[in-house]
Amino acid sequence: MSFGLDNLPYGSVIDQQGRRRAAVRYDTSVLDLTDLAPELFETGTLDRLLAAGPDVWSQVRARVTEVLQQGEGELIPLDAVRPVLPFTPGDYVDFYASEHHATNAGRIFRPGADPLPPSWRHQPIGYYGRSAALQASGTPVHRPSGHVRTDSGDSGVAFRPTERLDFEAELAFVVGAPSEAGRPVSVAAASRHVFGVALLNDWSARDIQAFETVPLGPFLGKSFATSISPWITPLAALEGARTASSQHPLPLPHLHEAVFPHGLALDLEVSVNGTVVSRPGFAAMYWSYAQLLAHLTSNGAAVRTGDVFASGTVSGPRADQRGCLLELTWNGTEPLTLDDGSSRTWLQDGDEVTITASHESITLGEVTGRIMP
Amino acid sequence: MSFGLDNLPYGSVIDQQGRRRAAVRYDTSVLDLTDLAPELFETGTLDRLLAAGPDVWSQVRARVTEVLQQGEGELIPLDAVRPVLPFTPGDYVDFYASEHHATNAGRIFRPGADPLPPSWRHQPIGYYGRSAALQASGTPVHRPSGHVRTDSGDSGVAFRPTERLDFEAELAFVVGAPSEAGRPVSVAAASRHVFGVALLNDWSARDIQAFETVPLGPFLGKSFATSISPWITPLAALEGARTASSQHPLPLPHLHEAVFPHGLALDLEVSVNGTVVSRPGFAAMYWSYAQLLAHLTSNGAAVRTGDVFASGTVSGPRADQRGCLLELTWNGTEPLTLDDGSSRTWLQDGDEVTITASHESITLGEVTGRIMP
User: Three-class SS of residue A263?
Assistant: First the structure.
């Protein structure tokens, strides 16, 4: 069973009467959480559960397990509900935590130079993104227009639909318990603030991004849509997936993985129209979620309930483990062939991209999206 | 009178009984708005007014004017209340819309190269920032720590309090009426979405920023604090300040200032501990707020009530019109002398930075902040 008692991701669904309910996914059903703890779930969202902190998270997970084991509670077939974004997003940050992705991007965009930026091994690199771009898996993605370089026209610049639409396979971390301003979250305390994880697709328009990105970073080439799974797997379900990363040089003390490792041995799979195009392993990430959160708060900034920080593209060392088309097609120079015989450098209208991930019996909720003109 | 009937900025204040009330600033008092339109103001914030759109904005402004002219309404002395951030911020974007600032920054960081990035004259350059960093004027600013380059130590990198703390004098635009996803806001329609303007100080730690900024842009060097005036001046008060900018080459059609100009002839003044260090003119900005909003939504992204976009540092052509210490001290190489005889390259603990602005009789609410260790 992909979504058994050891998993139990949380979400929020619209039922056939149009009511919104907080829910847990179990096998091919969802368990309505409303009556289990009305004070937490009467809003139909996970907002109050997220804010309640790790002791309540443990209690609710234990109670949900008990209810399901005893056959109590209201189960609704999964195909009779529509999952929606289950919490109110705060600030959204996207990191760049895969050494393989950052190295490939550096080789593509700065050939001949050191592929990793000078600070990359010293601190996690990231940027703030548009929080309102977060949308639940299944929501269509409309091909954005933007300023791009062109060979035609007087100015060398055109405003037109992107011709280099890409996906980025990532893992998102959802902040539950807020931190205090001026009090950085330590690596060891990070798991008391992070509620859970969800697969994320950071859709990217590479031609728009390339023209706008100097010197302030990605902007409209990213802000049109960011898809996230509506099922948030609690960290508690991933205890067995913990794994260590090897870091040279050792980061400065406040970023040490001192107590136990926070890497996660999740195997991702990315498919385009049903053809698997990549199988990146999250275990190969350089920076752990605990290090990302420690860094994010190291300047005194607090995190709030609903803040989301994502890993950045997950890529592994092998060519078939690259987490975006930029790398898979080497910036459009090496087309992929799909099972139907068609080839892709970038995404076409109608293409559907699906990202899944698992560790042994634990499966994350998928994130999928189809490109619309 | 600096805050007369032609001005009337909106805010939200905590009164001596600890109640939060929506208010208008008038001379040395504030007018409590609660009873004027309870359905809009019962929350004590401006959120519902912002969302209500331009027709309601006009009606409320007319009614407030009438109430004040007739001596009705409850006036509270300004010094008996504490202004707070008056709306719930959505996403926060910071632009880079001053040609003089961008040129100076380019000369400092990329000497010998073209100081303006290649796309700068074709489209407004900007980035998303941390929305939760927005704090009301008067809130202390704690000197952040971060990763910086160092000559000592094995790694060449240290984590320590910033030694290059800077201000950036900016104007923020507060989105009122939301736009629809997939429907870019035209330049001509921008003023129906922007509720008003407020002075903003984008505090910046230049050493942290310099080390982290490649390739994804500013991050922790900015996210620790962004101060904003709690008084939002409605666009209606600034009709007389409209002025045109000269743009070469002409931007692409969707960024043309087709109907009337959206530049604003506001004169800013920046002081450190009472010494005026700069007098930038907002009229010299290259991109108007209408062009910024049109660009921000040009990829299909919607804006929400409470979204804030800022101009970027406001600098003029003269050396005494530069809007940040980076430019004023040419990256710390040309110290400023304050009236007390002390000199500054960067901000010291205890320093207080105040930004004001006016156009004829219209004065914007100031933004001020003091540096704490």
Answer: strand
Mean pLDDT estimate for chain A: 96
Task: State the Cα–Cα distance between residues B173 and B196, nearest whole angstrom.
Answer: 6
Are B223 and A301 an interchain contact pair (Cβ–Cβ within 8 Å)? yes
Contact (CB, 8 A) for B361 and B226: no
> With b meaning 16 or more CB within 10 Å and e meaning fewer, what string describes A110-126?
eeeeebbbebbbbbbbb
Which of B94, B95, B110, B128 to substitute to test the interface with A, most A CBs within 10 Å?
B128
Q: Which residues in chain B come in under a pLDDT of 70?
A: 153-154
Q: Record the tokens describing residue B212, joined without a space.
A: 């982290």
DSSP, res B232: B
Nearest CB among A117, A129, A219 relative to B126 is that of A219
Is the pLDDT at A153 greater than 80? The verdict is no
In total, the C-beta contacts within 8 angstroms joining chain A to chain B are: 168
What span, in angstroms and rounded, lies between the C-alpha atoms of B177 and B191?
10
Residues of A annotated as catalytic are: 101
CB B207 within 8 A of CB B318: no
**CA–CA separation, B105 and B315 (whole Å):** 11
Q: What is the pLDDT of residues A256-273, one digit of tens each?
A: 987 789 999 999 999 999
Q: What is the pLDDT of residues A56-98, one digit of tens each?
A: 999 999 999 999 999 999 899 999 999 999 999 999 999 999 9
- Residues of chain B found within 8 Å of residue A182, distances taken between Cβ atoms: 142
Instruction: Find, among A228, A233, A238, the residue nearest to A196 by Cα.
Output: A233
DSSP 8-state assignment for residue B274: T
Nearest to B146 among A127, A220, A299 (CB): A299
Position B166 scores a pLDDT of 98
Distance CA A120, CA A122 (A): 6
Nearest CA in chain B to A157: B122
Question: What would the pLDDT profile of A190-214 be if each residue is shown by its tens digit?
Answer: 999 999 999 999 999 999 999 999 9
Instruction: Check CB contact under 8 Å for B122 and A155.
Output: yes
pLDDT range class, residue A9, cuts 50, 70, 90: very high
Q: Which residues of B touch A301 (CB under 8 A)?
A: 130, 132-133, 220, 223-224
ipTM of the complex: 0.97
- Give the CA distances from residue A270 to residues A135, A314, A345, B244, B250, in Å, rounded to whole numbers and listed in that order: 18, 11, 15, 50, 43
Question: What's the rounded Cα separation, in Å, for the pair B111 and B96?
Answer: 19
A1: pLDDT confidence band, cut at 50, 70 and 90? confident
Q: Which residues are registered as beta bridge partners of A123?
A: none
Closest chain A residue by Cα to residue B305:
A132
**For residue A357, which phi and psi values (nearest 5 degrees)?**
-160, 150
A357: β partners: A268
Residues ≥6 apart with Cβ < 8 Å to A20: A12, A13, A14, A44, A45, A84
The whole-angstrom distance between B57's CA and the closest CA on chain A is: 25
Catalytic residues of B: 101
**CA-to-CA dists, residue A197 to A262, A355, A364, B16, B287, angstroms:** 13, 14, 8, 44, 40
pTM over 0.80: yes
Count other Cβ atoms within 10 Å, centred on residue A73. Answer: 18
